[in-house]
Amino acid sequence: MKPTTLSCIAAALVALAACSNPLDTAQYAIDPPTAKDTLPDRLGRAELREISLPDYASGQEIAFQTADGALRSSPDNIWADAPRRSMTLALARQISEMSGATVVAEPWPLASEPQRRIEVRVERFIAAADGAVHLDGVYYVSPASYSASGGDTVHRFAIAVPMNGPTGKDADPGLIARTQSAALSQLAAQIAQLK
Fold it and tell me: Which parts of the chain span the membrane according to its record (predicted)?
């Protein structure tokens, strides 16, 4: 190879390394605050199926809405874990802490079978241009088997938590993560109370 070709390759590698600096990428966790409410156990042993999320909320990048209504994200701000997995685990933990129920993310790992199954289908989970995180959808609670007692429960939820900070492209991704965690905590309380 010619020396000029080697210098071009070396320069390209240096430029590529500069573009992929790991310090330029920030990772944020879904981490609801420790549950403070004490609610009655209305669920018993329940298996929580993996949460269903819209594509923009299940991707690695943290999504937000701009004033023009578009949903955007940046590769510089990503979730520390797969959103479906982390939200499912956080929701199960929150419901259990609040109510004393044994809520475990699927697959069920215990010897004694669950009494109920919980399924959460999220239709909207976004840091919206109106300055709030919106978490909307429906959850279902059903007996774990056809022979189990208890009926089906179906509840819609529409949670809005103010972000108390800039929105859109100026939104702080850490604030988005904290506010989404707070919204998930509110959903846990609703599911724990079956309301």
Answer: none
CATH number corresponding to 27-193 = 3.40.50.10610
pLDDT band at residue 20 using 50, 70 and 90 as cut-offs: low
- Over residues 130-167, the pLDDT tens digits come to 999 999 999 999 998 765 566 899 999 999 999 988 88
Taking CA atoms, 33 is separated from 36, 170, 177, 186, in Å, by 9, 25, 12, 11
Rounded to whole angstroms, the Cα distance separating 117 from 169 reads 38
Q: Which of 131, 126, 134, 136 is nearest to 72 (CA)?
A: 126
Q: What is the domain partition of the chain in residue ranges?
A: 27-193
Amino acid at 1: M
Give me the long-range contacts of 107-110 (CB less than 8 A, separation at least 24): 107/47, 108/47, 110/45
CB 85 within 8 A of CB 182: no
Please state the three-class secondary structure of 61-108 as a single string.
EEEEECCCCCEEEEEEEEECCCHHHHHHHHHHHHHHHHHCCEEEECCC
